Amino acid sequence: MPDETFLQKFHDLGDADAEIRYNAAHGVKTALVSGDVASDELSYTLRRLVRGVQSSRQCCRQGFCLALAEVLQAFPQELPTVLQLVDQTAELQSGLRAGEQKERLLGRLLVYAAVLQAGALRAKAAKGKAAPAGDAFGAFGRGLFQIYSARLYMAPAAACMLGDACTELCRAGLFASVPEVVSAWSLDKKISEGSSSDELDVNAHGLFFTLRLAYEDVLKAGTAASALKSWPACVRKDLLDSAAVARVAKCLGKALAVAPLGDALPPSLGSFCRWWLRPSEGRDPLALQSSIWPALEEGLFPEQAASSTLAQAFRGLAELATQMRDACGDDPKVEAVLAGLFDRLPRGFGLFLKALAWTKSPAHPSAIHAHSRLVGVVSGVKGGPQPKQQQAAQQKSGKRKRGQLESTGRQQPEQWGQLTDKTRLAILSALQGHKDFARTPGHFQRQWQQALLAPLSPLGIRSRCVSLLQADSKDTPMPRSTSAQLEQLAVHSKAPDEVVLAVVCMLFTAAYFAPGAEGAAGNYSLRNFKASSGLPAMQDGSDDLPIPVIGVEEDDRSSWRAKLWSTLASLVRRTLPEAAEKLVPAAGAEGNLSGGEDAAEGVRTLAFQGCLSDGSLLVLRLHDWWDHVVEKGPSASASMSPRLSAKKKKKGADAGSGLRCTIELEEDAAELRRRTVASCRAILALPEGAGGLSARQKNAICGLPLSLALALLMPGEAESVKETLTELLEMLDEVPRVVGSKQKTQKKLAESLASIPTVAAELFVQDVGALVREAAKTAWRELGMFTSDETLTSLCASVRDETTEPPADGEEDDEEEDEEDSEDDDGPVTAMQAARIAAFEEGKARLAAAAEKKKQKGKDGDDDDEDDEDLTTLDDDGMLAQLLGGDEDDNNLLESFASSGLDGAQAPAQTKKLTKRQQDLRRKQEDINRKFREVELLEIFLSRFGERRATSLTLVQELYEALLKASNNAAKATAAAQEEAAKEKGEDGKSKGGNKKQTKADNELRRLEAGLAQRLCKLMARVLRQICRGSVVELVARWHSAEEWASKARALCALGQSQKMSGSGQRSLEVGSTLLYFLCAAHRSAFLSKESAQASSGAGWSLTEELLGSVLREWGGKKDCDAWCQAALKAFAVRAPHVLRRLAWTEQIRSAKKAFAQRFQLIFVANELLRPAPGAAAGNAVNADAATVPAPAAFVEGYAELCAELLEASLTAGEDKEAGAAATSASQKQKLRREALQGLKAVLRLMQKSSGNSAGPLLPAPVAANVARAVAGIRDALPNQQRRGEVYQLCLHILRIVRPQVSGGSGKDRRDGSASPSRASKKQKL
Length: 1326
Hints:
The chain is mostly helical.
């Protein structure tokens, strides 16, 4: 009889926990293999496992099946025994109840699954393991056939299992045993019957496809066909013709369409796809498409299908695509079949796209699921694209270094190989060929385009661009989808320069140009344009890119202009792919070609943003295109044919007049543009490094005026642009003359360039176009060194301005009603409404004038009493009469009111009238948005030139003041909003309704204020992290004397202890503490340079000790000052802990009057000052060695004595006024004990690491004795119910270390000191 431990494992096999089942199965196998149980227990184990798989208790089927597979893997020779036990214990007898028969069938199926999983069939006589008996193969096949015939829902699993078994036998070289396994299935008969009938056995055909693939694999391995004569004839001859294949495809489609959403799909689909997509003799995958796709669509999408059937069909379509993708492999010829899935199922994909676009369709959720999987198939991601949360996490982690993602344990989704460009473009063309694709929601279309266009190579991008441009080289409006694809190709991370130029020029032409009076629409040749403008010529044999002149209505040009400016802004803010590949060839080899703000790892420079591969600016080439299309007319489409000779092409290109610009520039504006282009060409032609100008500086100088010259086309901005451009041209004209001079070139150049950053800053801050803003940002970044101090201080002063101003007391009450009315207004007043309102007001005015006239006559006595009565008693009937008739001299009011809708239909729409408060809120929002841009400019300057200009220190201090003001304003606004919400809700939780409701504008303003404070905080943290380096501090310290640095540090320290600092938030305090450290470090460096002293770790910190001493004294003393004290001390603890250790910590902690301050000071010393000295990071501290100086022994011993004193004081009465008297209540004393014990633990840990874990004493004998006495007193004072908590465990830990030192290392004392309460109580009883 097995022991209880072994039997318990069988009980655990049915547990619901998968981990317990796994351990139990592994334990059964280990016990049998290792011999821990008797040898005769193997038969008991097999018998119990075979019976256990038939049990329905909890998870017995899963657990016993797993254990059986483990045992058979260790003992494959027991396969005949297992199969015999199956026939005995799970015999399918007649007369069984349906439930019992189902249990036996499931048990048999799981036993066969365990046999297959264990690999018992393919085991050979090797290494002492005998091969299974020959009859076992037949018994295995017969058993599966019985299950196949007994229950229809088990037939797919049985057929799939048999096919996998035959495949395993062939791989093991036992292909001769396959006929014996399948002998009971009569496969030839089933296949022949299916070839002549519309209703065939899908599962039998799935087995046929699996065996045929295994047969072909055996032949490829070198086995002669004569050795496989015993295989079924249908498998050897591959008897399925095209008609039979079509019937199989139709039946498979029906099976997919009728499978409920909760059930598994037929496994024969995968074997069919693998058979179809494997080229073989007499079987061409491409040729079979003509017969398979129509039959598959007929079965999968029947006529007049219900919504439930469509939902199931969409899931089947996604599974079909997945199985085909698995079967394609890396064969590019077979990938063409995958494109047929999107092209040869027109009705099915039409229904799919309709359900995807109609959100109310019952099949819409299934269509979304199918869409996700189909996108994953074409993009190569198994399971479809990831959710947005995972994408955001991966994008964030993608900014880390390579290999860091794997260390986090996050698993990447499985992926297929990438499709070829030809297949991707064929799939995209097929999708766009469906008329319902245009009705699909935009985010679904973008997912398709991203999946198909993003992985394209440069050649594929060019090919797609050529096909799109050639398709739209007609005098017809370009479809929106085509223009969207061209935009995506232009900003592609691998787009060649020719594609970028072609798309930008096409957008520019469609936005601002039209054929002349005698001209006609046609095409421009990019090849001819490149040749005329001096760009590198196209490669011989490559297709030309036609740039069509699109017929655009004037009303539609605004959308084309928006596309143009957005595309240009996106291109100029990054390095174009070909330029990046030229800069870093390795990046091109890896496919990382994007530069700029979203640059890849291979490209880090910003020198060539917005430049083509030849180094020329993209905006300059756009001006060349402007001149090109104005001077030369477009050619007919036929002249673009490659069959024409060069002479005929040139003749066609020169025919016709040029285009006209739809925005007619004034003569002075056109002259400004010509001057701008000429001046920029002169600057760009200067030699490299001439006069100190680098290539990136020349590009920055020229990019701004060239962008402004393009902005002349923007309506409403021409006058301001002309004024700015004229000012810039005066500066640019000086640059070549200064560079050409021979005396003081650098100084004169700096003076001439000093005004350009000022203009750039003004343009960047203003509400200008995205292109001009990017050019201004580039100019500021490259020429910021020449910026005047006045410009920088004015930017800082603007940031420090008041962010919010409370409204006047009576303003809200006066305009509350107006605001409520305006909130109910849905939007701007239409032309019809405006005209009607004007007519109604005009009628009311005429009525009032007539009444006033009659009233005046009555006063003069010219009218009688009746008229007077009519004037004073005009009721509703009288008003109606006036509206309908009126006087003879007046027009009918209702007629004018009704006709005004027609007469004033073309009147311009009036914008919604804003109240004064709304106008004030909008102005404040605009001011904060402007401050965001100003902060960005200051960040660029401080990051690049902060170390070179003395003004940077003033900027940092003023920005910190702005940070405090913004943080306080944001905190006050949030607190006021919460208070208003609490008042509105009331104590009973119900709304009172008397207070004013917070509008969206108020919430947006609060969000902007909080965002500005966070932005300033990030800026300050980044700048301070840069200037706190030792080398930078030594350089910056020369700007001021030691006394001036001391004055700045004292002022900041005093500010930190004020009320203004306490309400600014924790992050502002951390920034201020870092700034204080920088000022103290600069003072130290200036002092040492003045005294000519050697910069040792302890010299020059007198000012720091003075300031930190005052901070320590104020900790727990002044109101709302604790947060600043902790932040300031922590900033120095990280960078200069040796300075903090000189302070009077023990006296300060001992004399603390507040319990929480005393505890926090204990924690601070233990966590910050008693840490083991780490290796200093290079350059992170003024003196890198100072951060690694270990804590002095006197400091550590004093702290240990202080902790012991506090522990003893916590045991005395509450009226004791000595150390520890700040903790009066029981809870405060308990917290103080915990923190003091934690401090002692930190002391012992530090001493152990400092001594190298040697056997010597860690503390002096008197200190150790005091510590042991105090800790033992705390331990003994604890009640019995608290002798399991943290305080008690800390006492035991400390006593284990300290007691041996006090008692001379006695083992008995050590055991007594760490004895548990249970042992102590037992000793007392004895």
